[in-house]
Amino acid sequence: MNLATPLFDSSLPAIRTSIAGISNAKYEQLTDGSREIYKQVLRVFERHKLEYFLFAGAIVGYVRNGRMPPWNDDLDVIIFEDQIKLFETVVLPFLRDCGYVCWPVAAPYTGGGYHILALQQDANSRRAPIELADGIPVVVPWAQVDVFYTRVDAAGFIRNLSNWGMYHTKQIPETWVRPGTFVHLDSFRARVFSNYEDDIWHEYGNVASNIVVHSHDKVSLKLMGSDWEKFEFDYDALLSTRVRGLPPSVSRARLAEFVPEARRQYEAPAGANFDFISKMICEDGPGQVTLTGADQSFWALDLKRLFPGVKLDVLISSEKEAKRAVHLRRFIDSVQFSDSGVRHIYEHCLLAGDVTSNSRRSRSA
């Protein structure tokens, strides 16, 4: 029996995209889109010399096999009391200027820290879908960084200011945390606890044999006493044999034959999904594609993955789209705007991060 089978719904299509993960997965997913946001947020922390420490799920993966688990749906960091003023007066305003949504932790943990969010399709629901192909809705995971406010108690153990988080009860000495060290995790560098391995074993037990797929109070799989190498082999085998990396209407042979014509342009209809756009690019061979729909900029990562030689132009018509385009700017070649107000929001967020407007061509529609 494949140990990873319970993580997927075999009755649904299994298509992997960079922005939404695997279409039939039952768990919250780590995606390339999330990784892009995590790199940006940690870069802001380090730019402002905020002393943070990445811990919890991401480091469970690092200790176990050197990479984040595919179900690691957020990053958790702690900052000590002496960093809170810098965080709240400098870092938070900067992040907000750059288009990130920053919420204080709600009751009963009020005062315990902040959530930093991006790539939200719907601010009120994690399950709001977009359409990958006809009849195949997918959910873009929120990219989320949780910041835990931390003090040191009289005995030298770290505690959250409002009892938020598992570490609050686990008797973790401050000496395991400071001064910290840096590790390279997936595609970015992060500061972690000085004794991060001791912390992981102390908080989570033997992560090489205890596999728990857990996110936001939902447990999708729990295998205690199972060998991680066997599980990882099963998981990778399942993905390689059952998960398609292309939208339904695009074949590998067709993609291999694709050659863009620099002067040819294609404008995607506002209601077109990822599969339809990909199919039309293959058929028309454009050198430039304009995305006009409200959700279509989400597909910039995947369109660049499939068609790296095609220039992507995005029409921005709302504040939400403007902020998303800033966060995904590495995959977008040019932008245009429905009105001057939307242009102002985009350029404000872009300039807040010291990225000049000349780095991406823009024009008003």
Low-confidence region ranges: 355-365
How many structural units, i.e. domains? 2
Largest sheet geometry: 6 strands, mixed
CATH C-level class of the largest domain: Alpha Beta
Please identify the structural class as seen in this structure.
Answer: alpha/beta
The fold-level CATH name of the largest domain is: Beta Polymerase, domain 2
Bin the helical content. Answer: 25-40%
Assign an overall shape: globular
CATH architecture of the largest domain: 2-Layer Sandwich
Q: What is the H/E order? A: EEHEHEHEEEEEEEEHEEHHEHEHEHEHE
- In whole angstroms, how far apart are the ends? 56 Å
Beta-strand residue percentage: 25-35%
Mean pLDDT: 93
Quantity of strands, as a count:
19
Provide the descriptors you would attach to this structure in a database record:
365 residues, Beta Polymerase, domain 2, Rossmann fold, 2 domains, six-stranded mixed β-sheet, 26% strand, disordered C terminus
